[in-house]
Structures are given as structure tokens and as C-alpha cells.
């Protein structure tokens, strides 16, 4: 009887956790044998899978997420819940004065503000061809 109750609790908890809005991150990896795609659930440690395409990896991570949650429920391990995300579009960044000068010089050469230059460089570093437009609230 206890086994049946425990099974029902796990099923109920699994349904709850599987519907939470976890953050899925898909990124290319290259191990020297070619590029493949890794999908991970940011909030769930070691919950990841790889695929030949970003779509394949993103589709497969859903099944891996369910298996990860079910395994932790069965073993009585904690399952982190996603934290709500709010992005203000502003960050405070400290840097060495020498780097600040280099950024200032590059922005001047490009004839843009330091803010515009940093947006451009950050966007390129995460794979965007140009920074997204800033929407005013």
C-alpha cells in the first residue's frame, strides 16, 4: 500500500515540476570532431543532452528533464524550481582602467558611444550579428 501511495506522490510531483518554466539553453559545441548542439536546463544540474541540430537538442531535452526530475523524486533529492527572471536592460560592470581606456578608444574609432560599442561587442560574442533594439518601458 505504501508503495502505491509513494508512486502516486511521485506522479503528482512529476506532473507539477515538468510544467514549470525552466530555462532551456541551446548552444553549439565543437570537440574537434565537428560541431554539435548541447541543450541544458539551467536550473537542473547535469541535465543536458546533445543533438545534431539545435532543434533536435531542444526537443530531446524535454524527455531528459522528465527523467532527471523523476530520478530525483525517487531518490528523495531536491528539485530546484525556476526563479522568475526580470531583465532591466542595465548592468553595473567593474573593469580595470586599462580595459576601460581600450574600450573608449575603440568606441571613438567606431564613432559610437561606449554604451553602443559595448552592446555591439557583447551581441557579437553571443552570436548575434547586431545588438537587439532597446525598447523603452
List the helices and strands and how they pair.
Blueprint: H1 2-18, E1 24-30, E2 35-41, E3 48-51, H2 54-75, H3 97-110, H4 114-125
Antiparallel strand pairs: 1-2, 2-3
Helix pairs in contact: 1-2, 3-4
Describe this structure in words.
By secondary structure, the chain is an alpha+beta fold. It folds into 2 domains: 9-75, Double Stranded RNA Binding Domain; 87-137. Helices cover 47% and strands 13% of the residues. The chain has 4 helices and 3 strands; from the N terminus they run H-E-E-E-H-H-H. It has helices at 2-18, 54-75, 97-110, 114-125, and strands spanning 24-30, 35-41, 48-51. Strands 1-2-3 form a 3-stranded antiparallel beta sheet. Helix 1 packs antiparallel against helix 2 and helix 3 (97-110) crosses helix 4 (114-125). It is elongated. The N and C termini lie far apart (56 Å). The mean pLDDT is 88.
Give the structural class: alpha+beta
| CATH topology assignment of the largest domain | Double Stranded RNA Binding Domain
- Span from first to last CA? 56 Å
Top-tier CATH class of the largest domain:
Alpha Beta
Q: What is the helix tally?
A: 4
Order of helices and strands: HEEEHHH
Rg over alpha carbons: 21 Å
Q: Oligomeric status of the shown chains?
A: single chain
